[in-house]
Predict the 3D structure of the following.
Amino acid sequence: MWWNHQNLEIPRKDASGGVWHFRVWHGHVEGTYVQLVFFWNDAKSESGVVEFRGDQALHVSRLKQVIAKLVSSSEYRLRFRRDLEFPVEAKYATYRPLG
């Protein structure tokens, strides 16, 4: 299910003024708790997803730190680069393995 509220989904600006968008999906998959942090820029030319499974799952405050790092660090974003299909909410409403 999509994690609404707690300001995880609000757009954020990077140092150059670029706008980044985020959606966080979370749920239990085959008995394991999974969190997915989807991200993309306004032009949708850069996108990706960060996955946390099981004991890697983060509290909302740590998820916000991950989002802040995605905004500020192009090197960090590159580690999780993936082409996404839009709208994200429709295409990724149910979990699919990232591999």
User: Anything to note?
Assistant: The mean pLDDT is 94. DSSP finds three helices and four strands in the chain. Residues 48 and 81 are 4 Å apart (CA to CA). Helices lie at 60-72, 74-79, 88-91.
